[in-house]
Amino acid sequence: MVADQVDSRKTRSNNRQQQILDAAMTVFLKKGFSGSTTKEIAKEAGVAEGTIFRYFKTKKDLLLELASPGIVQSLADTMEGTSGQSDEVILKAILTNRLEVFNQNRELVQLLIAEARFHPEIKEQFVERIVLRAAAVMQRFMTERVAAGDFKDMDPKILTGALVGMMGFFVLWKEFLLADKYVDFNSETVIDSVIEVFLNGVRNKEKGEDDENKA
Amino acid sequence: MVADQVDSRKTRSNNRQQQILDAAMTVFLKKGFSGSTTKEIAKEAGVAEGTIFRYFKTKKDLLLELASPGIVQSLADTMEGTSGQSDEVILKAILTNRLEVFNQNRELVQLLIAEARFHPEIKEQFVERIVLRAAAVMQRFMTERVAAGDFKDMDPKILTGALVGMMGFFVLWKEFLLADKYVDFNSETVIDSVIEVFLNGVRNKEKGEDDENKA
DNA sequence: TATAAAAGTGAGTACTCACTCATGATTAAT
DNA sequence: ATTAATCATGAGTGAGTACTCACTTTTATA
Predict the structure, then answer these.
(1) Are the beta carbons of B161 and A168 separated by less than 8 Å?
(2) Domain B70-206: homologous superfamily in CATH
(3) Which residue is nearest to the C1' sugar atom of C17, using CA?
(4) Where are the domains of chain B?
């Protein structure tokens, strides 16, 4: 008890706020927003219940702060400036990066997805700031390739969906449904396989010039 | 009020239980399990709050009953007995059927996925009775094709994941993230595209006999 | 060190929750 | 019509909830 107090005093002046947010995240993840109590959050943070309300007007404000633009932002503006390289390299860079960014913010994303259904503001932010941005980057890539005739003439949105879906499946599988019981996928193997299947699936190997693809 | 009472009396003896379950489902979907109150469920069902507890010992029992084997079962044993037909036809049959079954039980599945995180019993049942079964059927198909040399020599689990993921993406997109804002996909188009991409992606077009694929 | 401001506390408050139970209504059987 | 059994009710109950506030402790300033 005393030791805890000393410990928490150390991080005192800079960010008690962050300390509470971290605790809220932990508890929300474990019990969900509605299932969590401010009492438990306080305990997890090592502060008195009243202290929470010095920093956040309401319990819901805690959740909204977790989903605030500042934090969420970092997910989006990550991948830019890959050009003049092979599709395999570009896609691998994109997917690897996405997966990395996702893994870093895994818990937050998990929480936001879970609560999005009940809090329109969160849903809005999540879709606008993460999903659509991320999709836009990839969609631009798809559109280019289709226009160049390298990929089949399909709706870029469907192409994006196919790739994101394949990748997303393995991520979600791991995250939500508990992997180990079924199988534990190796990240790089999965990425390579996904890219291979995808590129083979969408590349044009039409009449005339089929030599280009062999190399 | 009186009319409601008369109405509910009609369905009285056979299944007041079902009436309450339906209401619980509706409310759980809208507010989540923790966010729902028995009072609201009672109101939705058109019965007194106490009546709920004549049929279900606790609020949680309502949730568990919704996820009970009987109901959940119907999702699994649907697709069997397609053989001797082309991959395209088989896969289209599978995917179309899965999508149909999913759409019929959409709300239930949505609810189960949402609550699985907080209720191990539900998660267990969901994974065992739905996911693994459905996966098994598809995985058998993949294993066969790989063994026959028609598909690339990849882990059948990854192949299954790739296909399910592509398909799942569009379904989840629609369900969880609100489609219309972004785009509304036509089911058949999506299925056809997914199959095309998948088959092109995983089929063997090795040296030697490339005539087979042309047709 | 004295003093004001800021930060932290936790018992208290008003309220909501899941669940109970004494009572009333409906049905079935004679 | 009488009785007994079942079904339905909703005010009531205690446990717990988010949030407040009178108070204490810590920090900053002189």
Answers:
(1) no
(2) Tetracycline Repressor, domain 2 (1.10.357.10)
(3) B37
(4) 2-62, 70-206
Please give the CATH number for the structural domain made up of A71-214. Answer: 1.10.357.10
* SS3 of residue B57 by DSSP: coil
A69-100 pLDDT, tens per residue?
777 766 655 555 566 789 999 899 888 888 88
Is the CB of residue A204 inside 7 Å of nucleic acid strand D? no
Considering the four listed CATH numbers 1.10.10.60, 3.90.1800.10, 3.50.50.60, 1.10.287.130, the one that applies to the domain covering A2-66 is: 1.10.10.60
d(C-alpha A17, C-alpha A23), whole Å: 10
CATH of domain B2-62: 1.10.10.60
* Beta bridge partner(s), residue B151: B203
Nucleotide nearest to A57 (CA to C1'): D19
State whether residue A122 sits within 8 Å of chain B by CB: no
How close, in Å, is residue B165 to chain A by CA atoms?
Answer: 4
Using a CB–CB cutoff of 8 Å, tell me whether B63 touches chain A: no
pTM, two decimals, is: 0.83
Q: Hey, how many other C-beta atoms are within 10 angstroms of the C-beta on A180? A: 7
Chain segment A14-47, per-residue pLDDT in tens: 589 999 999 999 999 999 999 999 999 999 999 9
**Residue whose structure tokens are 């390298």:** A150
